[in-house]
Amino acid sequence: MSRNLSAPCSPEEAWAALAPVLAGQPRVRLSKDAGKSYPQKHERNLTEALPSVPAAVRIFGKDGTCAAIFLDFDSSVAGQDWVQADVRAVETWLHSVGARWIEDYSPNGGRHVYVPLAQRVTFSEARDLVEALGTRYRTLDKTPHQNLLHGCMRTPGSPHKRGGYQELAMSLSMAYDIVRRPNSPTVWASMTKDLAPEIKAVRALRQEETFTSVTSHAPIITRSAGRMSRTMQVLAQTGLYDINRYATDSDARQAVIVGAAAAGLQLVDVERRMLQGIWPGLASFYARYAARHRLPALRRDWRNALTYLSKNPANRDRNHNVRRSPTSQPNTQAVGVRGSNLISNPDAEHRFIRTWRNALRIREVNYQESRTGMARRMVLRALGEAAHMTASRFIEFGVRSVAVATGLDHTTVGLHLRELRAEKDPLVTLVEEARGTKGDLYMLTVPEELKAAAEDATWHKGKIHALRPVFRELGLPAAFIYEALENSPGLSTTEVVAATRLSRSAVHEALDVLAAWNLVNRDAGRAWSVVAGTSLKQLAEHFGVLEAVAAQIQRYRDDRIIWREWLAKKVTTVAELLSPDDDYPWETFEGPPDDWSLSDMAFGRAG
User: Fold this and answer.
1) How many CB atoms lie within 10 A of CB 503?
2) Per the count of CB atoms within 10 A, which of 280, 286, 528, 532 is most buried?
3) What is the pLDDT of residue 113?
4) Cα(214)–Cα(58) distance, integer angstroms
5) How confident is the model at residue 423 (pLDDT cuts 50, 70, 90)?
6) How is 314-336 classified by DSSP, letter by letter?
7) pTM for the predicted model, two decimal places
């Protein structure tokens, strides 16, 4: 594509010429809410085509390094005049150290300064430099360079939330020359040398602060073979660590490697997470080596870790917080009146549940395509999946179990369950309310008005799923569509609309999201199918969604402990295991937590 770089440039030309070169990796995040947020689910491959909505390129690559320093001067902090003064000052400083830069401005008075680099620098190096500059310039927003996983910024040409675009403050020919001839390692060394006192100060400030990440208090995600501690996972993903514990990046990376080996991971697991961008923080610690030496360095560290663990077997659990905890299982005995076994034929129960699924499919058309309607559809799916797991139409658990399976808050689940069982001819019936440590007892019901149609209809192929973890990020419409394509591959867009009972616009947007993450593709005949090679589990790990699931499970485990402690104080005999009375803190808990959780739905069911 030829461009006249000397003429005044259009937004399309600025974007095509500069965005792909400045980005740390060829990915861009779109804002579907007029520039308020740039969520991960709206990330796409970066192309030269200008997006129609505000778009921010990813700053860091999968290897945890960046190709340019992005300086964002925010007019909302102290006004446009202060922004202009800070920009002039930082550009004077850049000139003094021999650096070249690109500048653009937004319609609201904010300004961006980009410093392209010939040799990529690590997340830690870039963060140190930007935080050091932040001590000099009040309006500089440091956050884009403080988040390895989500750091992104609009580049020249991007649409702006207030209308208009990011416009170059120089000619496109000059800007293009700068990205084609970026700043050398010598210039980078001059920049860091001049900022050495400020860099030392920001590092000292970090040392004084108590290290907390956004999920540092989240629980360990557990599995029967053991799993890395939450601290080690955060370190591997974000590159952030407590410098009071690890003096250097090398110390931090070795801790991650030892933690991974102690948890039972294999070297190939670690390599895959680094190469696929799941652990960019760990990858950034190896960026100091030439590309051809990074994997050999990792393998050397792995051998050292195995040697350490063989000599210190006690440290396998103690030092790296490996947890081994089997996921609790639901009671597989179908119960009616508490404890009585009503179901003796699992095959007959599975046939009934499939007929119930036909009734659910017919009834789903009644649920509006709203957040509430889709949430109720997902609650019913969670009940259906639980019924298949236990081979029984009777399901005994509390709202917190359904909350884990659906990604909803337990109070929201309670509201939906009350509304669902209050419907005329409901699909679920409350058989018995919770007592003591027992959860509510529900029964799947095929309404009389739907019985004939449900029994005559062909059973649908495939499984029914609650909300698999990755769809907490990608959204409920994407979950419904993915399930439909799993069970019936090769559907056209019109057929997807019919199969999911979603609107055409919602289907189009969700298909775009799924295609952007290589979960579905479209063949030459314009039929959609699931991409079998893309793992839902790995993508959920990439998004960090498993951490949110684990945090929710741990919250509910804590709730259960509090409930049992309260119960132990009030109860002396089994006959007194009744629902809590008025002095129980109902404002905190709407009912007794369940005896088992549906965490297997969250961890064990996604591909």
Assistant:
1) 12
2) 280
3) 96
4) 20
5) confident
6) THHHHTTT-BB-PPP----S-BS
7) 0.64
